[in-house]
Amino acid sequence: MYLWLKFLHLFFIVSWFAGLFYLPRIYVNLAMADSESEYARLLLMARKLFKFMTPWGIGALLCGLLMPLTQTAFAGWIYAKIALGLLLLLYHGWCGLLLAAFSRRQNRHSHRWYRVFNELPVLALIAAVYLAVFKPF
């Protein structure tokens, strides 16, 4: 059971991160859009991607939370990975709030801000891979 959960968790993580990496890149372009048609096309892409990536995030979190329950004992690094997963959930929700602001034409950030915002999941991924490989706690 544990290996199947691990397999599914990795699948969902890869899929979710693809969206977490790409959606803010769409936001960069939305913040720089010059024409109405370009804005509408990018907004449609962002909405579809957000809808597509949300189930992958749910699957990643569920499998990640279920995996420790299949073990008799687990170490402290699991708690750190769960915390990272919850932070990524907050990031995902923040992406949704930003998408809603773009939909209402109330974006308050520059394309440069979105370029920095786009790097946050990279840091989370580095931390999660480190924890999974080295199991430091």
Automatic annotation (TrEMBL):
Pathway: Porphyrin-containing compound metabolism; protoporphyrin-IX biosynthesis; protoporphyrin-IX from protoporphyrinogen-IX: step 1/1. Its EC number is 1.3.99.-. It catalyses: protoporphyrinogen IX + 3 A = protoporphyrin IX + 3 AH2. Heme binds at H9, K81. The keyword Metal-binding applies. Keywords: Cell membrane, Heme, Iron, Membrane, Metal-binding, Oxidoreductase, Transmembrane, Transmembrane helix. Binds 1 heme b (iron(II)-protoporphyrin IX) group per subunit. It is a multi-pass membrane protein. The keyword Metal-binding applies. InterPro entries: HemJ-like (IPR005265). It is found in: Cell membrane. It holds the Pfam family UPF0093. Its main location: membrane. Its cofactor is heme b. The chain crosses the membrane at residues 6-28, 49-70, 76-101, 113-133. PANTHER family: PROTOPORPHYRINOGEN IX OXIDASE, UPF0093 MEMBRANE PROTEIN SLR1790. Catalyzes the oxidation of protoporphyrinogen IX to protoporphyrin IX. Belongs to the HemJ family. Homodimer. This is Protoporphyrinogen IX oxidase. It comes from Kingella pumchi. The lineage of its organism: Bacteria, Pseudomonadati, Pseudomonadota, Betaproteobacteria, Neisseriales.
